[in-house]
Amino acid sequence: MVNIHKGKHRGTPWKIKLIRGSCVTKIFTFKESCLYDLPVSEVNKLFGYSYDLLNKDTVRFGWKAVRDRIQLWAYFHKDFKKYDNLQTVLTVVSINKPVKLSLYTIDDITYFSIDDKVYHSSKFKKKYWGWNQNVYFGGQTPAPHDMEIEINENSNKC
Length: 158
Prior knowledge:
It is a single chain. With 158 residues, the protein is mostly beta strands. It is 0% helix and 53% strand. It contains no helices and 14 strands. It has a seven-stranded antiparallel β-sheet, with no helix packed on it. The radius of gyration is 14 Å and the shape is globular. The two termini are 21 Å apart.
């Protein structure tokens, strides 16, 4: 379980670890506490990887609460810049329903897969390794209240 505390950005526990291989899969369940209504609409970060600890180049799944559901997004940074033209809404999922998310790279194309269906791809070269990117709420705006996201850490096989 990952907790995002009111007024904070980083989910806890915060784990720094190396990801090896060309595919990462995790199963997430958004709890009802993940629903919020804010005037600013930023994409929250769910998981992904970067090639350095400074997050210069990252590829991640993002998420946003929309009414009583969660939007899942493709989210990219390249040379420390967010590429709005690459940010894409992938699908909408229900609260309290597990969803399997995978990021994998084949021939310099990164694919976003949700419940084994490919939703998006983009040219984003991944090395054989990368740094795990953890749950992070907002950009400028912190979490409006405590939130919980269940993560199946044993689902890393693609």
